[in-house]
C-alpha cells in the first residue's frame, strides 16, 4: 500500500492553514509546495509576499509559532526554489519531517552530493532528505546520490510548480529504472497523480503518492483521501 501525501500549494499563510485543516486528523503528513517564482514560474507562500516581511514566516523562524497544526501533523517541504541548499538552515527552522531538494538547478551533481554528505548527523537523524528529479533530467543523475538520501521524488509532469497538470508517462520509465537498480529505494511521485494514474504507479513499485488537485478539488476531500488510501 502506497503512502498518500496531501500536497498543498499555498497562496498565502491563511490558504496554507485552511487546506491543512481540511485533512487534519485524517493524514499524518502534508507536503507543502514552496515555489520561489525563480526556479519555477509559480510563487507560493512565503514568496507570494516577501520572506523578509511575511509575519507568520518570521514568527516561525523566531520560534514564536509553528506551522499550522504542527502538534497534529508532520510536514514535507517540497523546495522548488533556487537557493534551497544555501538556505537549508532557514528551512529546517520550519520543523519539517522531510525536505525535497530539486536537481534541476544543481550543476554539477557532485556539488549537491557534497552538500548532502556535509549535513550534520543530528539533522540527518531528524529530517528525511529527498531529491526531486525532473523528466528533462537524466534519471542517472540520481544514481550517485542514492547513498546520501532517504528517498527520491520523481516529478510526474513537465510544467513544474503547478497543480492540475497532465501526467507524463515518461515518469513510469524512471520508476522502472530506479526500482530495478535500487530495490530498497523509497520512490515518491509528485504531479499528475489521480485515480487513473495512481494504480499504474503503485503496480510499478511506487511507495508514496503526493496528491494535490485530485484531492483538494473534490467535494468530498476526506472520502477521496480514503479512496486513494485503499487503492
Radius of gyration, in angstroms, nearest whole number: 17 Å
Question: Largest beta sheet, briefly?
Answer: 8 strands, parallel, barrel
The CATH topology name reads TIM Barrel
User: Residue ranges: pLDDT <50 for 5 or more in a row?
Assistant: none
The tally of structural domains comes to 1
Quick one: overall form?
globular
CATH first level: Alpha Beta
Order of helices and strands: EHEHEHEHHEEHEHEHH
Give me the count of strands. 8
What's the architecture, going by CATH? Alpha-Beta Barrel
Strand content is 15-25%
Describe this structure as you would to a colleague.
The structure is a single chain. With 231 residues, the protein is α/β, with parallel strands linked by helices. It has a single domain, classed as Aldolase class I (TIM Barrel), CATH 3.20.20. Helices cover 30% and strands 19% of the residues. It has 9 helices and 8 strands. It has helices at residues 13-23, 55-61, 88-92, 109-117, 121-126, 170-181, 198-203, 213-216, 221-229; strands at 3-8, 29-35, 74-80, 98-102, 128-133, 151-155, 186-190, 208-211. It has an 8-stranded parallel β-barrel with strand order 1-2-3-4-5-6-7-8. α2 (55-61) links the parallel β2 (29-35) and β3.
Give a topology summary.
Layout: E1 3-8, H1 13-23, E2 29-35, H2 55-61, E3 74-80, H3 88-92, E4 98-102, H4 109-117, H5 121-126, E5 128-133, E6 151-155, H6 170-181, E7 186-190, H7 198-203, E8 208-211, H8 213-216, H9 221-229
Parallel strand pairs: 1-2, 1-8, 2-3, 3-4, 4-5, 5-6, 6-7, 7-8
Q: Which key phrases capture this entry?
A:
8 strands; globular; 8-stranded parallel beta barrel; 9 helices; TIM Barrel
Amino acid at each position: 500500500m502506497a503512502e498518500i501525501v496531501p500536497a498543498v500549494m499555498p497562496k498565502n499563510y491563511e490558504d496554507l492553514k485552511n487546506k491543512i485543516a481540511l485533512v487534519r486528523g485524517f493524514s499524518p503528513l502534508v507536503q507543502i509546495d514552496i515555489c520561489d517564482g525563480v526556479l519555477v514560474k509559480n510563487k507560493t507562500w512565503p514568496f507570494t509576499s516577501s520572506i523578509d516581511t511575511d509575519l507568520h514566516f518570521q514568527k516561525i523562524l523566531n520560534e514564536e509559532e509553528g506551522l499550522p497544526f504542527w502538534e497534529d501533523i508532520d510536514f514535507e517541504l517540497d523546495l522548488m526554489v533556487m537557493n534551497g541548499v544555501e538556505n537549508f538552515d532557514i528551512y529546517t527552522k520550519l520543523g519539517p519531517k522531510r525536505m525535497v531538494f530539486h536537481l534541476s538547478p544543481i550543476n554539477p551533481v557532485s556539488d549537491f552530493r557534497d552538500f548532502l554528505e556535509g549535513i550534520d548527523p543530528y539533522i540527518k537523524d531528524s529530517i528525511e532528505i529527498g531529491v526531486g528529479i525532473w523528466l528533462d533530467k537524466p534519471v542517472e543523475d540520481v544514481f550517485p546520490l542514492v547513498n546520501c538520501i532517504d528517498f527520491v521524488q520523481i516529478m510526474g509532469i513537465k510544467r513544474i510548480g503547478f497543480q492540475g497538470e497532465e501526467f507524463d508517462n515518461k515518469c513510469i520509465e524512471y520508476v522502472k529504472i530506479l526500482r530495478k537498480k535500487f530495490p530498497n529505494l523509497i520512490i515518491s511521485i509528485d504531479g499528475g497523480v489521480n485515480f487513473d494514474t495512481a494504480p499504474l504507479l503503485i503496480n510499478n513499485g511506487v511507495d508514496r503518492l503526493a496528491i494535490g488537485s485530485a484531492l483538494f478539488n473534490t467535494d468530498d476531500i476526506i472520502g477521496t483521501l480514503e479512496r486513494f488510501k485503499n487503492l
